[in-house]
Amino acid sequence: MIYQNECELIDGTTLVEKDNKLFCHDKEVLIQKIIPNMVDTIILGDLPFMKKIIFWAAYNLGLNYGVIPSSIHGLYQARGEGKVGGFVVPAINIRTLTYDLARSVFRAAKKINAGAFILEIATSEIGYTAQRPMEYSTMIILAALREEFVGPVFILGDHFQVVASKFVEDRNKELNNLKTFIDEAVDASFYNIDIDASTLVDLSKDTLEEQQRLNYEMTAFFTKYVRSLEPADITISIGGEIGEVGGKNSTAEELTAFMSGYLNQITGIKGISKMSVQTGTTHGGVVLPDGTIAEVKIDLKTLSDLSDILCKCYGMAGAVQHGASTLPNEAFHHFSEVNCAEIHLATQFQNIVYDYLPIPMKEEIYSWINEHCSSERKPNWTDHQFNYKTRKKALGQFKKEIYSLRKDVKNKIASVVEEEFTFLFDKLNIKDTKEIVNNYVTLVKVEKKKEDFFKDYNQLKEGDSAD
Fold first, then answer.
1. Which of 186, 231, 330, 430 is deepest in the core (most CB within 10 A)?
2. Cα–Cα distance for residue pair 46/298, rounded to 1 Å
């Protein structure tokens, strides 16, 4: 895509800019031609200037056509007050083919009039998938525009995590690193942030309060920091975590110890609205030597008990389940029954993409991870286990190749993923939640000037692909 005067397409189609707002004379041309060209330029192009123009254009078009990045805080507050319930909000992590798979999400949602769903990416994934927050949010906005989805769109920064080893080595440096990530995410319209300081829980301490101290102190620290960045009239939805996913199951006593210490630290400001807990799952599932995924027994009673405490004692939405996308299909209807507030889904969608990759590309990817990720291989792992656990690390390296798959292959992947979303949305009971969301989520159009998208441009040389 080539711009003339920054908003006129050389091919004759014009995006009209007036008073810092963008419109298109022909919406069908916008949907069928301009948006795909924008995505091509972001993924396949190497000019930071062009990408930033598109980030601005996509955001502006989104606001003007009803795609509004929003905070889910109002809905979760209503849930904590007992005004709504009976459904589980899926937080959908898209690591690759972000635009195509996000389109599948919006199509599945529109079919059942769903509004209570989140699209998210974690800090750890931003690097290895090669998609910074501004690119990720732009892809979500463009996908929503392409599918003519109108209303609040919830974009989440998941696992904004304090790395324990780096925290011990240099506390201030690690905190500043995470603050920088949060700055970037909020600038990119991530109005939902999950703080994960559960890595700092020290089970060697004698009391639960001492075990959770660093966790609640750092969660409070970042709660205050996020609140300081909020655009006018937006309360960013913030989540906490008491049990590192993959570790021991969380307990009511741990939750109480965390909340007691945390609330004492944040007097006078709004706190977290949900809590991630551990109930027996792991991120990506447990892969067996033959490459199949081990069955997991979820502690649903723990999930139910902790959700009840969070709602009844603290007015919060409830507990959050991570590491769930590889669970058997028959497990998903249970989550709404136990008042789970939110469920995070990621690996299964990545697995579907890998299932349909051409064999030569897959072999090239596995060759790459064997060369570049060998240090992550455990001595007892088979090739199946190593490939399954590390292949996500190749998504950024092969980003352009995966995006450039034949149209029929990408369409097949998107179709299968849409079927998966349709199934999950049904089991999580989010049908007809569009009106519920509209009732409790206030639409706030955060106006941004073109220059807001060029804050760091002077530090980049034209032609550099650092963006």
1. 430
2. 45
Q: 24: domain range?
A: 15-65
Query: DSSP 3-state assignment of 89?
Result: strand
User: In the chain, pLDDT over 90 holds for what percent of residues?
Assistant: 77
Q: Same domain, yes or no, for 222 and 260?
A: yes
CA within 13 Å, CB half, 362:
13
What per-residue confidence (pLDDT) applies to 24?
84
Same domain, 165 and 231: yes
In a domain, 76, yes or no: yes
pLDDT band of residue 466 (cuts 50, 70, 90) is very low
Q: How many CA atoms lie within 13 A of 91 on its CB side?
A: 25
> In this structure, is residue 396 part of a structural domain?
no
Alpha-carbon dihedral angle through residues 411, 135, 155, 109, given to the nearest 10 degrees: -20
The answer to whether residues 143 and 60 belong to one domain is no
Q: Angle CA(70)–CA(72)–CA(75) in degrees, nearest 5?
A: 135
pTM of the model: 0.91
The single residue listed with the structure tokens 């990759």 is 357
- Kindly state the DSSP code that residue 394 receives in the 8-state scheme: G
**Could you tell me if 247 and 292 lie in one domain?**
yes
339 and 290, same domain (yes or no): yes
Q: What is the pLDDT of residues 400-426, one digit of tens each?
A: 999 999 999 999 999 999 999 999 999
**Are the CB atoms for 27 and 436 separated by under 8 Å?**
no
